[in-house]
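User: Fold this, then the next.

Assistant: Folding the first:
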Amino acid sequence: MQSYLQSGRFIDSDHPLVIQFAETWRGASRDPREQAVNLYYAVREQIRYNPYSFSRDPETLQASHALLAGESYCVPKALLLAACARHCGIPARIGLADVRNHL
């Protein structure tokens, strides 16, 4: 599980903005499940979903980019949630799937 706790190129859990966001929204509880739920709702509510913000620039796939932009589509939002979880000591990774006609 150690690899799911480390910061990476896209899940940049050591970025100052990610750390600040995670600390703000994780809540007072030390229960990992409660923290994960709090972080889920924070990413869902605080970062606007915009499916038209897609870019081929790899930098836009970093968790920190979703915070900087204040909006993103599903992949960077998932990366942000994973980064926040990792910062809080909760092992996390993302899963990907093809979605057809989601618009």
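Now the next one, as you asked:
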Amino acid sequence: MKRSVLFILILCIAVIGLAQDAPAPAEEVVVDPVADIIAQADATHEAKDYDATMDLLQQAYKLDAKNVEILWKISRGYFDFADRKPNDLEYKKPFLYKGRDFAEKALALDEKSAAAHKWYAIHHGQVGEAEGTEQKIKNSYGMRDHTLLAIKYDPTDDANYHVMGRWHFALSDLSWIERQVASIIYATPPEASFEEALEFFNKAHALDSKDIRNMLYIGYCYEELDDDDKAESWYKKAINAKAETDSERSLIAEAKEALDDL
């Protein structure tokens, strides 16, 4: 009888020891399908496969139409489509309107979304360009205000400074006729300068030294400020940059043309 009790006691201790040594059951991993699709879209966007990116984002949108990140990334996607033919306004128009709509939806959900402000500003400004002089000037205020908010909420995004530089450059480069239109629309037309444009482009370049757009527009600014030596230097930097997309190749072609005309 004593041996039986002893045997049972030893068996219990052994079972307890095994239980302590046994690995804990793995926690069940919960996969968020929306987050997974967004991650896939980020990967395809990084690879510059914009069609696949938009397909994925549209899938995510069907699952969660109130997701701010999905909304602004779809807005960005429409810009990517429009940017395939940067100088063809008629081609770009439908993409610009759709892109602005999605950025507006994102802002309705989160008015502090820097990315939503940025893409709204970009589309809004280009819609103005596509619709003519009067609309270009009318949209310029909205473009400026949303870009400044984008900078406020995300001062690390180089694109925000580039857009603000483009705002200053475009308004400083208005023709005499456009300035007359501006004076009719506004008692005090928007104030801008090539010097301020240059400051914003330099800030953008400091954050992303590989972006060809910044190099090209820094060159443009120096040319407008009658510093041809610096303009030439920046045009050459743009020409020698690595191009991976049709849009970037178009920018290099612009830089070559600007250098030839200098």
